[in-house]
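Thread: adenosine monophosphate complex, take 2
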Amino acid sequence: MKIMVVGGGGREHAVIKKLKENKSIEKIYALPGNGGIAADAECVPIGATDIDGIVKFAAENAIDFAVVTPDDPLVLGAVDALTAAGIKCFGPEKKAAIIEGSKVFSKNLMKKYGIPTARYEVFSDMGKALEYLDTAPIPTVIKADGLALGKGVIIAETREDAKNAVKSMMLDKIFGESGSNIVIEEFLTGPEVSVLSFTDGKTIVPMVSSMDHKRAKDNDEGLNTGGMGTVAPNPYYTKEVADECMKNIFLPTVKAMNEEGRTFKGCLYFGLMITPDGAKVIEYNCRFGDPETQVVLPLLKTDLFTVMNAVADGKLSEIDVEFKDENACCVIMASDGYPVKYEKGYEITADDSIDGEIFIAGAKKENGRLLTNGGRVLGVTCTAETLKEAVEKSYRAVEKIHFGNAYYRRDIGARALKAGK
Ligand code: AMP
Ligand code: GLY
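Output below.
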């Protein structure tokens, strides 16, 4: 069997390494992959948003199954185009990927179906948004409607900051057309939990919960990033919270999407906040999270391809999806200066004796050497019986990996360890 994975980051590397455990898979292509993924898959220089190129490659190379992981190709309709060409896929169709592609859509969906989320207003007129901010509760949260490389959310602590945020999105268009419509929503408080799930539109199976560390610096300071590390499971996601989420959030979301004629099949990601009033949805993603995937998949016991194939066939209820009763910690090693400005092109080396997995996110191969080529360079994941051991193992492994200008947070897992006590 030949599989194609669309994307080229740490998440895709984690997916590919897990798929490789299935011995019936003879070949995995990564489009475009990266210099590190090249050790585990054949990388093909076709961009993740080049839908025509992806479909052509799949048809010409008799691909049996395609996994589309990043948000942009999903929102652009990669799965629809591949399916139309007769290629079986894991991932939602365009009409379902809108759950991430449009915040206005997802907020309205939650309101219509009574799914708990922050109170909000939608604006397409800047004057009205600014007027609303004269009396809106502060702090407030301003969100661009469309995809904005994970940066379309501004938390404003003052009225002035809020108004500036609106102007930057609607007038200066810092997020392009994504900011033509905006959502202004209530600021919520509480610990955040990421829950990735498999769903075929009938059954939903939550994966082990995880905790992202989005800020660039220790103690959750500095700018928002794509994620500087993760741990799983998340100690704030207790059995009671999980039951509440299944009843009030997960099942109602699957049902709501069906009722809208937008059945979601693939990995549905719930970004949750456990507020004093219960769990609420901060955001939906139509895909695996990154770096959440780098801790969740190493804990998956069931064969990943079997699960993805069952999702594609609408037969998820027929299989058991099991996770190891262990803990995982992923520390992201980045280029210093990320997410703003950073240098690239340094050689990455590692001592042989690393007791964990390395997922490469931003690297290229040149003359046999692996060079840094991105902000987030790689993720180091270790698993262990306890979270404390997993965290310690990951940091021991990080010390054995070297590249110029390397930067990483020193406190991944610290909050979870405190909460778990
Ligand atoms: P997102 O890009 O949607 O993941 O949002 C980035 C981060 O902004 C989230 O992980 C939260 O920490 C924060 N955030 C988003 N919405 C809210 C909200 N309504 N209240 C408080 N924090 C929020
Ligand atoms: N780590 C958050 C995301 O993938 O959106």
